[in-house]
Amino acid sequence: MTYQEQTSQIGQLVASYKGTWDGIDAESVARMRLQNRFRTGLDIARYTAAIMRRDMAAYDANPAEYTQSLGCWHGFIGQQKLISIKKHFGTTKGRYLYLSGWMVAALRSEFGPLPDQSMHEKTSVPALIEELYTFLKQADARELGMMFRDLDKARESGNEIEAQRLTQVIDNYETHVVPIIADIDAGFGNAEATYLLAKKMIEAGACALQIENQVSDEKQCGHQDGKVTVPHEDFLAKVRACRYAFLELGVDDGIIVTRTDSLGAGLTKQIAFSKEKGDIGDQYNSFLDCEEVTDLSTLRGDVVIERDGKLMRPKRLPSNLFQFREGTGADRCVLDCITSLQNGADLLWIETEKPHIEQIASMVDRIREVIPNAKLVYNNSPSFNWTLNFRQQVFDAWVEAGKDVSAYDRAKLMSVDYDDTDLAAEADERIRTFQKDAAARAGIFHHLITLPTYHTAALSTDNLAKEYFGEAGMLGYVKGVQRKEIREGIACVKHQNMSGSDIGDDHKEYFAGEAALKAGGAHNTMNQFAA
């Protein structure tokens, strides 16, 4: 329904109350409705799930159509990201938000900063989803509010052409609301606990849930040691729990991202149940590091399994965890991914220890032999030393090609001494094109950085503190922050407007007319920042 159609329809509703609603302005109601397009989190989840499904189909047709996101730990950060994207690129197409469990643990827990081990309150995850969407919806209300003010000015000046143009812009307005891929860790408990949390996350607006195959109470960050996986049937029960949650809430095309940590996980807490040779439990157990038992007197409460007619004892650590054979990580990842896609997953996440396209592609190629349209969400992680990794990749490629590398020390390539070299330039170019190249070669549909805004907040705060508390004093803020905000068109330089002051003024005028006491008058210091 167009802006004018809504205004007309509401006008008829007001008139039907025979004068008792004459204090209600129909166009103001139409404006408020447009500024609050999404009434519930489920409205958002359904809307954004459809976006992701269209984007996934577009990627299947053309791998150049990959998507991206940045992890955001606060609603304001997510809001400013989307405002920036719209400012610089004119559209939010292909850009999402990522909700990182790592950042929830580190920045949003009532316990204070925590490691990424599922120790934070599970309710803090849906709370952050709701907060992110509250700020994105407020960005819509703010931007539309400015359009409405411009429309009023055009009408007041008699510029009908401009008024018609603005009306069309309003009718075709693109929202800041985009999909969120939300980290549910290992499900925070058993399958029922996973289902209950999934419902809360979906009700808050999440259209995509990312769940990993680690043991819930032993969960570790994907880039730390000590990861412990679970048998496939245990994990698939949680995948089904997420799907049930989506279907119960009417988000029929919700997306489930299954993450495998098997590449770096050398341990399992339990031996899988197997009914017959070659079933999924037997395949999981086939990776266990075992030794043959030939003398029963050597058993001391050990678990034993049968393998090819032999009695085998899986190696068990003092922690009671069982160990996989070294070198089986990639094979286990491939099995995990195929099994997940065959049991309801939509997208895969393979957590790797380095950003190496051919390493990722070597696993995806095997997965696609079974499921041709398999595609990944990939963590462009800050845990990787991107500079060193790619300089070493170039170094190794040059060695293989027979190029002279005598001017370089492979172990010290991070040094600033190499910054202006041909090797560093080639490495930086590979980093620049990594997402495009990996989308084409390694099946990566969605590239994300889990905790970039954690690092940018630390870096920018360090720069400000160094200047402001040093010799620069107030110039440290003015030159390093405010002057840049003004000249680069950063919207929140007018922080009163960004926080909703003008929206509030509009509402006061709707409610009280000429009697409204508004904040945005001539004496508002934000007028110093007029364009």
From TrEMBL:
Keyword set includes Coiled coil: no
Cofactor, free-text remark: Can also use Mn(2+) ion.
Keywords attached to this entry: Lyase, Magnesium, Metal-binding
A Gene Ontology BP annotation from the UniProt entry: carboxylic acid metabolic process
SUPFAM superfamilies for the chain: Phosphoenolpyruvate/pyruvate domain (SSF51621)
InterPro entries according to UniProt: ICL/PEPM, Isocitrate_lyase, Pyrv/PenolPyrv_kinase-like_dom, Pyrv_kinase-like_dom_sf
Binding site for Mg(2+): 183
Reactions catalysed: D-threo-isocitrate = glyoxylate + succinate
Gene3D superfamilies with a match to the protein in the record: Phosphoenolpyruvate-binding domains
GO MF term (any one): metal ion binding
Active site: 221 (proton acceptor)
Needed co-factor(s): Mg(2+)
PANTHER family linked to this entry: BIFUNCTIONAL GLYOXYLATE CYCLE PROTEIN (PTHR21631:SF3), ISOCITRATE LYASE/MALATE SYNTHASE (PTHR21631)
Protein's UniProt name: Isocitrate lyase
